[in-house]
Amino acid sequence: ETDLATLTIGKGKVFFDLKGREIRVKTLELMGQKYGVEFTDDEKSKFALMEGIGVPILNLKQLIAMKTAERSKAGQPGVPTDSLDNQLKEWIYNARIANIEINDKELQVAIKGDAKEEYPSIRKVMDILQDQKINSFSLVTGLRGKNF
Hints:
By secondary structure, this protein is α/β, with parallel strands linked by helices. The chain has one domain (4-141). The chain is built from 5 helices and 4 strands. The chain has a 4-stranded mixed beta sheet. Helix 1 packs across helix 2 (41-49) and helix 1 (21-35) packs across helix 4. The chain is globular, with a radius of gyration of 15 Å.
């Protein structure tokens, strides 16, 4: 499925993932322009195949250069969401632009968090979406209890 951005929240960290290789590359190019980071064609190709990212844009080149097995989310600090450097907001904004440009459709957004995640972490991500007038999104949890 394309036209989907997934924001995964775990242990207070946020990871950004996007479906569709072409959209991923276009979003990366837009982010590079915004932050003054130039990505090579090889880096763009590798990024198009990567799963969710959880690093600041200035560390993304190092992440792309790693082998797939070395990229585990455990070692990633999460995409910055603080008010001084809200890179998550920029990833979402630029992914929406890329999706409209390429697919002529609005990007769908899913927030994925495990059942143990603290509400303030999820609320912060919801606020970032609502600041961009995104009020419709899927909320996915891994809730597994004996009563469900």
